[in-house]
Amino acid sequence: MPDALALTPTRLILIAAFLLCGVIAPLVAPAYQTQLTELLLFIVFALAWDLVGGQMGYNSFGNVLFVGVGMYVCAIVQVGLFYNVGLYTEARGGGTEFIFDESQFLIGLAVGLPGAALVSALIAWLLGSLVLTMRGHYFAICTLGLGIAAGQVAAGIPWIGAGSGMLTPNPPDSLGDVVLLLYYLSLGLAVTCALTFAWLLSTRFGLALNAIRDDEDKAEAMGLNTHAAKVTAWVIAAAFLGVAGALYGNLVRFIDPINTAFAGATIGVWMILMALLGGRGTLLGPIVGAIVFQVTKELFWTYMLGWQRVALGVLIILVAVFFPYGIVGFFRDRFKDKGRPAEQAP
Predict the structure, then answer these.
(1) b/e for 162-201, b at 16 or more Cβ within 10 A?
(2) Going by C-beta distance under 8 Å and a sequence separation of 6 or more, which residues neighbour residue 186?
(3) Helix (H, G, I), strand (E, B), or coil: what is residue 263?
(4) Is the pLDDT assigned to residue 341 strictly greater than 70?
(5) Bridge partners (DSSP) listed for residue 166
(6) Which of 45, 190, 300, 309 is least surrounded, with the fewest CB atoms within 10 Å of its CB?
(7) Span 238-293, pLDDT tens digits
(8) DSSP alpha helices (H): ranges in the chain?
(9) Strand pairing of 166-167 and 254-255?
(10) Mean local confidence (pLDDT), 116-123
């Protein structure tokens, strides 16, 4: 494992090239800043899901819970530091106008992002202590229920807009292009997430997660505290998902409890699909899967409007049939087979 993730000169060059492309991408293609920002957040979604679903083998259908929590916590902090949240959500349809100046917007974002990470991690720790005692399809169904329940609960709280949703603070004109700011924040988050996971997977903790995936009972018999490892992995993934959700909420500017925050039918499914598409259980797989998925999704939404969800369903079937180990796994096996010497006849 450590050798597979070692920072060789070639890999350092590739990382530097990726960072350079990331820095200049929104400047070269300013018309696609929103899509590029969404791509970076999708990379975090896929990596965070894969830490639990791929590396540890616990297929969660409710990770969107932490995305939604991050959205709401960040928005509440951004507003609550300067105004009454209840009055702010009540005035959504008209009436009092709430204006945020440049310093208020930036301070709210600076406090809201770590707040989203902390609250999401805390909820993951509290729920993980109970939910992660289950295995297999019981765990999957339970997490699915958590995401659905969270959306219904949020839709019933008037303080945060209930079913009408909640607007994130309107950035002032003096701040300039706020999408560019969100892009670079998302780039920093995606790089931090990838490097953190690369480091974790090169340690004994990464080996513990893989041992749980391969045979949890044997891992426990060998003295591994599997429950502590599972909860820790879920908490780490939740923290990154919370920050990604906070940035995503500010990107779309409107938080709907069912269709945006706790959108299990879209974001919840997409993060799983991206990990499977690229190759679950690998560090590069979720990144590749997110890139391919985002490009494909934008093409479907542009040229197949009205049939885009049907096209995504077909994509899922094609991935399951032709790429059961993902794109990275497919090419890895191909190159591995080509590198093997041919068997010589006796």
Answers:
(1) eeebbbbbebbeeeeebbebbbebbbebbbebbeebbebb
(2) 37, 40, 41, 44, 244, 247
(3) coil
(4) no
(5) 255
(6) 309
(7) 999 999 999 999 999 999 999 999 998 889 989 998 999 898 888 889 999 999 99
(8) 9-28, 33-53, 64-80, 85-90, 102-131, 136-154, 178-201, 204-221, 226-252, 269-278, 284-303, 308-322, 326-339
(9) antiparallel
(10) 97
